[in-house]
Amino acid sequence: MKIRDLDLSDNPVNAEHQALGLPPIEHAVTHSADHPVLRFAMWSVVLLLGGVTAFLTTRLFNQPDGHTGFQIIAQTLESRAFWSAVAVGLLAQTVDGALGMAYGITSTSFLLASGSSPAVASAAVHIAEVFTTGVSGITHIKLGNVNKNLFLRLLVPGMVGASTGAWIVSSVDGKALKPYIASYLLVMGLYVISKIFRTIKTRREEPRHVAKLGLLGGFVDAIGGGGWGPVVTTTLVGTGHDPRMTIGSVNLAEFFLTFVSAGVFAMLVGESPWPTVAGLVIGGLFAAPLAAMLTKRLHTKALLALVGTVISLISLYNLYQALQ
């Protein structure tokens, strides 16, 4: 869940986040953005979210097997997969709310450990993120956090990379792919830990190689169930580019690549991930107080060390299980 109202004021926590290349902490603020490209992007997000909501509601209450929507809801509430996903969504969004990143890699790591295949885990995470990244993108536009040129340079390569990654992870045998996914998530966990030792300097130069970075970020995000933020945002901010505009632009682009990869997953994944999707969303809704408590009580470096260590250990466990 990535519904963020960013507090962009000068405060000690934001100063620490900027030094580590992390997004600012959350705070509710609003103002309008008037650029026609960004207005078009915002209304595209609104219309796509509305269409998806209407489609899913229609599917829920018009089942071909005769089950009613309320029966499906009751079955979901009795499902172990649903309650496991609630716990994962709660934890993953707590991490994301406190650090501004790592929702995908945290949730995918735990879903793999609970027995989900790579395709189902990544599909569930991306379908759940369609709604949250959409709200996040709209918020960033309203806050004036989006650089139009950077957003457009990331958009198409990110969508191509995401759809390619979703197709590969849905088409390859899950058991054969799982060791590689676990290894990738292990690297991401270590990368999170490495941010403790990095110092970022802000500059205003135009970022280079954005298209290649977007292609890579979209691909590994779909393959590994997460990583768009750690790969793209931290690379751009880590090379010294303005954190506020980079974070907003990357998050807006993330909605569109998540939408594309979720569509590919929905068409290609045979096993239905809907109980897991519902659990991730509902669990994430209750995470904000926990994220706020962690941010208040723990230093950012301590959170990075804790989250990176947990992800790395779970990935090592998943890798060990996959190689047995």
Q: Secondary structure elements and their pairing?
A:
Elements: H1 12-20, H2 36-61, H3 69-77, H4 80-99, H5 103-113, H6 118-142, H7 148-171, H8 174-194, H9 210-224, H10 228-238, H11 243-268, H12 274-285, H13 288-297, H14 300-323
Explained architecture:
It is a single chain. With 324 residues, the protein is mainly alpha-helical. The protein has one domain (12-323). 75% of the residues lie in helices and 0% in strands. It has helices at 12-20, 36-61, 69-77, 80-99, 103-113, 118-142, 148-171, 174-194, 210-224, 228-238, 243-268, 274-285, 288-297, 300-323. Helix 4 packs across helix 13 (288-297) and helix 9 packs antiparallel against helix 10. The chain is globular and about 55 Å long. 52% of the residues are buried. Residues 27-32 have low confidence and may be disordered.
- Please give the count of helices: 14
How would you spell out the order of helices and strands?
HHHHHHHHHHHHHH
Q: Report the average pLDDT across residues.
A: 81
User: Please, what is the oligomeric state?
Assistant: single chain
> Biggest sheet: strands, sense, closure?
none
Please estimate the helix content. over 70%
Q: Strand-residue fraction?
A: under 5%
Number of strands: 0
The low-pLDDT segments are 27-32
Report the radius of gyration as a whole number of Å: 19 Å
Net shape: globular
The assigned structural class equals: mainly alpha
Ends distance: 33 Å
Quickly count the domains: 1
